[in-house]
Amino acid sequence: MSEGKLLSIVIPVYNEGNAIYNNIKTVIGVLCENEIEHEVILVDDGSKDNTWEQLCFLSKDFEAVRALRLSRNFGKEAALCAGIEAVKGDACLIMDSDLQHPPRYIPEFYRLWQQGADVVDGVKKSRGKESAFSKVTAKLFYKLMHGFSGFDMHGASDFKLMSRKVIEAYNSLDEKNTFFRGMSAWLGFNRVELEFEVDERRDGKTKWSPLKLAKLALNAVTSFSSLPLYFVVWLGVAFLIAALALGIQTLVMYFTHQAVSGFTTVILLLLLTGSALMISLGIIGVYISKIYDEVKGRPRYIISEKR
Question: Starting from the edge strand earliest in sequence, which strands make up the sheet with 91-94, in order?
């Protein structure tokens, strides 16, 4: 199947020591069966179990495997950046280490790339056996991202192939707070979609708690769009209109001697305006923290070991 083009597989790994060896062996088996020239780049994102030892075994047992170890847990987005910057191939395929991104689709990704696609987006046919709450919140998140950015990422995933020129364009982006799905969509290029079924995890549990997912969503929105800042402006305009209307009503009630004594209205107004101010300051504060992270100029990640 291969025409002398090297395909790099980039896989971030975190606390997958029990399953990672067999999972990567499965991936390599698919690549070899389809005669795809390949390299596999595994990025240990500061795992606390025996993941790094297993990656070292893989690098010894399989010539095509390269392992990178980050100095601490920088997060999946940073681990993806580390892997993509280390790519030597003509294209790279991003996938998860738990095989929920099924390796059986790799030949189809490769074929679409050879036919001229610069980006092959893996799009989920369904969200598998996720809870109803997870499905609803995911749908809400992608609707918000569509509204904020203009890019429809419904069903999007990190299961994605990028050609060499897309890799170079992605690596030229300097921001420290990254959102891979959004940034890769922003790059453009010739794109095609490939639908896939999400498989169940073979071992262990997901590392994404509701709190981590909420943090990822907040980082995605604020790193990729400035639209929430305009929300503060429109919130101020809405309260100005409400204040003018209430002021007119109050004057009318006063001059017609229908004014009602008491502090209920005043207390409600104070609560509403106070809440709006706190929300607005919170949104502005998040963006200021992003600016603070960017101007410090610290690297996205630090590699402590390579194999």
Answer: 191-196, 119-124, 156-163, 91-94, 7-13, 38-44, 65-70, 303-306
Give, to the nearest 10 degrees, the angle between helix 20-33 and helix 51-61.
30
Contact indicator for 297, 233 with CB cutoff of 8 Å: no
**Closest-CA residue to 122 (of 174, 180, 45):** 180
First to last CA, the chain: 28
Residue in 54, 66, 58, 45 with CA at minimum distance from that of residue 17: 54
Report CA Rg, the chain: 25
**Is the pTM higher than 0.85?**
no
Per DSSP, helices labelled H in 160-263 are: 164-171, 180-187, 210-224, 227-255
Q: How many CB atoms lie within 10 A of CB 65?
A: 23
Q: State whether residue 9 is helix, strand or coil.
A: strand
Strands (E), the chain: 7-13, 38-44, 65-70, 91-94, 119-124, 156-163, 191-196, 303-306
How many H helices and E strands in the chain?
10, 8
Q: What is the DSSP letter of 129?
A: T
The length of the chain in residues reads 307
Local mean pLDDT, 10-residue blocks, the chain (307 residues): 75 88 91 90 90 91 91 88 90 89 90 90 71 62 61 71 91 81 81 82 61 65 68 72 71 68 62 73 76 76 85
